Amino acid sequence: MKKILSRLLVIFLTTVFTLGLLEIGIRILGSKISGQIIPLSLKTHRPSANRKMGYELIPGSASFEDNTWYRINKDGIRDEVYARIKPASTYRIAAVGDSCTFGMAVDLQDTWPKQLEKELRRSKASVEVINFGVMGYNTTQEAEIIREKVLGYSPDLIVIGYSLNDIGILSRERTVLSTYRGYNSFLTTGIGFIDKFLGRSKLYLLLKNRFYLKKTKADTKPPRYSKDGQKVLKMGYNGFLLNAYQEPENWSRLHAAFADIRRATQPKVPVLIAIYPELQNLQQYPFSELHKIVKKLAGQYAFAVIDPLSAFLPYEIQDVRISAANAHPNPLGNKIFSHAIASYIQSNLLIK
After folding, report:
1. CA 23 to CA 15: how far, in whole Å?
2. CA 196 – CA 194 distance, rounded (Å)
3. Domain boundaries, the chain
4. What class does CATH assign to 83-169+225-347?
5. What is the pTM of this model?
6. What are the backbone angles phi and psi of residue 106, rounded to the nearest 5°?
7. Which of 11, 47, 182, 210 lies 20 to 30 Å from 269, alpha-carbon distance?
């Protein structure tokens, strides 16, 4: 019996040692072995039980993508952990929006919600700005996350970072999740701490990716674009955007989303719509009329609205966006946006 136990122990230790060496080897060689087979955004996003939201951030997940770390807290937001019950004398702002709010390709502290928090704390220390942004969300999804998650934190103000494409349905996360259906639950045990441990193993992820692709052949399937995504491919991004506000389906969707936000928040929580400019050709900006349309619509639903476009005009486009290939705002772009919001809040004496 002792010999059998000794052999089993040797086998166990040898297996653990071998797996450890393989794990170290894969981590050293990185993408030369594993490759970018499965889009990394799957590490931080999953399908949601809420059909209107469609997908959501994975609580406790982390991913290095777009040259930065995306770390999602236990409550499923990209921020520190905040108590649901707001501390006494604290002024709490909920920042809602898409990738410009979430902070694509920038560190958390460089996102506009955290820069806004930093600026406001110069005059009042007890200010919290919680980042509820989710990459790829449109206004319908933002309305739903306000109802389902944001209001549970008892915010004193909700600031919606409105991107002009929020009228449509298009995001790389939605495309990835629909193309790679079932990936998140593939080869999982259903036991939280075990799956969390496995999710940190490069060896496990390599094997999971290989087996998943072999089973589903997802890497050979064309992406499952939404109707709006297909229009972008056909018309180009600018063409899609200019056309989107003329289409009854998109226009009705935006109206319905604003109505949902109003029903959920008014009159208890004020809402501020902050329009994010498209960071292209600021000197001959092609979307000024769309800004006017959004401002008028926001007014119809009794939302406050600011348009920081003029604050961006003194800058060269390359100074405020991530790169020539990525039009999302860089730290400076986020700072300009957050400063405009801070000025509005302070000018209107929203923080006592």
Report:
1. 12
2. 5
3. 1-33, 35-76+171-223, 83-169+225-347
4. alpha beta
5. 0.87
6. -130, 150
7. 47
